[in-house]
Amino acid sequence: MEDDTNLVHVTFGGHDGADVGEWTRHSELALLGEKVWPLGDSSTFSGFLTRRTIGDLLVTDYQTSPFAGRFAPTTAAADYVQLSRVSAVGGEWTRLRDGRRFEAGGALSMFDGASLDAYEQWRSRRSTTLHVPKSALRERGLRWQSYHLPRFLDSSTTAHVLAAMLPPLLSGPAISAGESFALRAAVLDLMAGLRPQDVLHSSQAVSAAMRSRIETWVERAIHTGPITPADAAAAHGVSVRSLHRLFAGSDRSFSGLVREKRLEAARNDLATGTSTIQGVAARWGYSDVSHFCREFKRAYGTTASQFRADRLAPVAVGC
């Protein structure tokens, strides 16, 4: 049955269990593989499967009689990273395309959908999975390769928090557009914390290096005219959103950096040039000289007039 356009729940049982074709259709939509078949003597499947889309995220939950599955070379699962929680450990193996084979190593696991080849589940247990598009990770500046998959995450508090979010999403009421946006953002924030610690430390170092390069670029570009976030992002091959996120991890925003460098340039002009304060303000993008004077005093603890007077002969017009 369906109770909203994004939530689908199907059940099969007894003599009316799903045949292979029907279960294959539902499995493919749930990113469980393009080919599935029952194990043992049964020729049908019994159990349930629920799936829900939240924006571009997919959450699935199923429990069935024993079965096996295989992924096609062009599987849609290749576009996702999946985080799964099972109700009981054991009774399953997963084979990757490189030939490696994994027995269930814990209740929480994380796999790259593109690496999956085949699996068998000969023990009936419940499996709840979050499928996160790699495109969404890239959008947040997260490289899915940095997760070092596959991984088992039973010792990760972040993974347990993320897994605990899933059941309400599969049984709750319809999700509004605003809720969907907020839930997606929360999932991606938690996904950022699932990277291995060495990657987190490395990422912090890379962020610091990138900020340093952008600061140097701003110091040079400030002399050519106004600087926008789009200018800086394009010059460094990142999105505007990534640029702002980069500076969110520091003690100042990108606009704060530009303001600081602009005031530094104006201060140098006041100390060495012959322009009036109005002229210096206009040169560095301040159309309102009184606003420039307030910014200058806030930054340096003295007025622009007094600063110039301490270094040069007083000028006729000040603030």
What does this protein structure show overall?
By secondary structure, the chain is of the alpha+beta class. It folds into 2 domains: 194 residues, Sandwich (Jelly Rolls); 120 residues, Arc Repressor Mutant, subunit A (Orthogonal Bundle). It contains 11 helices and 13 strands. Strand 8 and strand 9 form a beta hairpin. Helix 6 packs across helix 7 and helix 8 packs across helix 11. The chain is elongated, with a radius of gyration of 29 Å. About 2% of the residues have low confidence.
Protein topology:
Layout: E1 2-4, E2 7-12, H1 20-29, E3 35-38, E4 47-54, E5 57-64, E6 67-70, E7 80-86, E8 92-96, E9 101-103, E10 108-112, E11 116-121, E12 127-133, H2 134-139, E13 151-152, H3 157-171, H4 177-192, H5 197-221, H6 229-235, H7 240-248, H8 254-272, H9 277-283, H10 289-300, H11 304-311
Antiparallel strand pairs: 1-2, 2-4, 3-6, 4-5, 5-12, 6-11, 7-10, 7-12, 8-9, 8-11, 10-13
Instruction: Give a quick account of the main beta sheet: strands, pairing sense, barrel closure.
Output: 8 strands, antiparallel
> How many beta-strand segments?
13
Shape, per Cα inertia axes: elongated
Remind me, CATH topology of the largest domain?
A: Jelly Rolls
From the helix content, strand content and strand pairing, which structural class follows?
Answer: alpha+beta
SS summary, helix count: 11
The CATH superfamily name of the largest domain is Jelly Rolls
The overall average pLDDT, rounded, is 83
Number of domains: 2
Helix content: 40-55%
Q: Segments where pLDDT lies below 50 for 5+ residues? A: 198-203
Beta fraction: 15-25%
CATH hierarchy class name of the largest domain: Mainly Beta
